[in-house]
Design goal:
Largest sheet: 7 strands, parallel
Distance between the termini: 11 Å
Number of helices: 11
Number of strands: 18
Strand content: 15-25%
C-alpha cells in the first residue's frame, strides 16, 4: 500500500471540492481492504493539525476499532445498523446515520439514559432506495424528527447518497441533488442555539466531477484507495498485490494443470507456481477471464484454475525466470502495469470488491511513511 499515493489522492479530492468543504474519508471495510489503522493515520497526518472532520465507517465495531487506535474525533456511521448496535455506538461516542423515525426514537431513549445530547445525521432517500426517509415527504417527517430530537438529541447533519455519480451521464445525479435540495428546504430550522445542520451528499465521483455540489462535507472512498471514480477520473494506484514464485519448471506438450485439468500445454512450456490463491483474495474468475501477472516486466497469463493457495503462470516468454521471482497481480513492474480496475473488469465486478476481497492472510506492507 503506497501511503504517499493515498495522501495525494486525498489532496486531489480536497482541491476538487474547495476550501469550504471538509472531508470525511471513508475507512469502512478495513479501509477498503487495505488497513484502516494505517489509512486513518495517513489521512490524519496529511490533514494536520486538525485532521479530517471525521472518519466514515459502516459498523459500530469499525468505530470501536478507530477508538482503540487512538482516534478521538468524529466517527460517522454511514450505513443502517441493527437496533442492538445503537447502544454500542452511544458508548463509543459514534454518530449514527438515522434512516427512519423508529431508530431516531431509540437513539433519543439512549440519550436520555446517558444524560447528554447525542448527535445524529439523518439520511434522505433521493433514489438509492436502500435506506433513508423519502425526499418528497420531508415536510411531514421533518417536523416529527425535530420533535423527537428536542432537548435530547443534536440533529447535526442531513445527507443523501448518489447511485450513479460514476456513470458517464450525470443527469440522474443532478436530479438526485435537486430532490435533496427540495427536501432540505422543507425541513424545520435547527433548534434555538443549535448550529446550522451540516449537508453532505458526495462520494468520490460526485466530489471530483461535481465539486461536491458545494456541500459542507464530502465522503470520498474508493478514489482514495486507487479505484477509478468514473472512467474520466483516474487516481494514483495505491494497492499492489504481489507473490513470489515457489516453483519454476519446464513441462512437455500435453501436460495439464489445476483442478479439472482445464488447461493443457499445446507445446513445451515453462510454468511458474505463485504462492497466492483465492484464499488470499486472488479472484478465481481470473483463470477463465484472461487474467495475467507481471514477472520480470513481462505480462504472463494465468493457466488452469486458481487454487486456494497457489496459481500457475505461463512463463515461456520470460527469460531466466526462477523460484523466488516476484509475480505482480496488481501493480507495476517495469513498463507494465495492471490496475485494480482492469482486474475488476476482467472479473465482471468493481474495484471495491477486488480490494475488500483481499484476505488477512496477505501481509500488508506500507510504503511512504506510516505503519498499521
Amino acid at each position: 500500500m503506497d501511503l504517499g499515493a493515498l495522501r495525494r489522492n486525498l489532496r486531489r479530492v480536497e482541491a476538487a471540492v474547495g476550501p469550504g468543504t471538509a472531508l470525511v474519508p471513508m475507512v469502512k471495510a478495513d479501509a477498503y481492504g487495505l488497513g484502516m489503522r494505517a489509512a486513518a493515520d495517513a489521512f490524519r497526518r496529511e490533514l494536520a493539525p486538525d485532521g479530517p472532520w471525521g472518519f466514515g465507517v459502516a459498523a459500530a465495531a469499525e468505530g470501536e476499532a478507530l477508538r482503540e487506535a487512538g482516534w478521538t474525533g468524529r466517527v460517522l456511521l454511514s450505513s443502517p445498523m441493527p437496533p442492538d448496535e445503537l447502544p454500542r455506538a452511544a458508548r463509543a461516542g459514534l454518530t449514527p446515520s438515522v434512516w427512519e423515525l423508529e431508530t431516531l426514537r431509540r437513539w433519543a431513549e439512549l440519550a436520555a439514559g446517558a444524560g447528554r445530547r447525542l448527535p445524529f445525521h439523518l439520511e434522505v432517500d433521493t433514489g438509492m432506495g436502500r435506506a433513508g426517509l423519502p425526499w418528497a415527504e420531508a415536510a411531514e417527517w421533518g417536523v416529527e424528527a425535530a420533535r423527537i430530537a428536542a432537548g435530547r438529541l443534536l440533529w447535526e447533519g442531513c445527507f443523501t447518497h448518489f447511485h450513479s455519480a460514476d456513470e458517464p451521464d450525470l443527469a440522474a445525479t443532478d436530479r438526485q441533488w435537486e430532490r435533496f435540495r427540495h427536501a432540505l428546504s422543507l425541513l424545520p430550522p435547527p433548534a434555538e442555539g443549535d448550529p446550522p445542520r451540516l449537508v453532505h451528499s458526495s462520494n468520490s465521483a460526485a466530489a471530483l466531477r461535481r465539486a461536491g455540489y458545494g456541500c459542507d462535507l464530502a465522503r470520498p472512498g474508493i478514489f482514495l484507495y486507487g479505484g477509478a471514480a468514473g472512467a474520466d477520473v483516474q487516481p494514483e494506484p495505491v494497492a499492489s498485490v504481489r507473490a513470489r514464485l515457489s516453483l519454476v519448471r519446464r513441462v512437455p506438450a500435453g501436460t495439464t494443470v489445476g483442478y479439472g485439468a482445464t488447461y493443457t500445454a499445446p507445446r513445451d512450456e515453462v510454468w511458474g507456481t505463485a504462492a497466492i490463491g483465492y484464499g488470499d483474495g486472488l479472484r478465481r474468475a481470473l483463470a477463465t477471464a484472461g487474467g495475467e501477472a507481471i514477472v520480470r516486466g513481462v505480462r504472463v497469463p494465468i493457466v488452469g484454475r486458481i487454487s486456494m493457495d497457489v496459481s500457475v503462470l505461463n512463463l515461456s516468454r520470460v527469460p531466466g525466470a526462477r523460484a523466488g521471482d516476484v509475480a505482480t497481480f496488481i501493480g507495476r513492474d517495469g513498463a507494465e502495469e495492471i490496475r485494480v480496475d482492469e482486474v475488476a473488469e476482467r472479473c465482471g465486478t468493481i474495484s471495491y470488491e477486488i480490494l475488500t476481497g483481499l484476505t488477512p492472510r496477505l501481509p500488508r506492507v506500507y510504503l511512504g511513511g506510516g505503519s498499521p
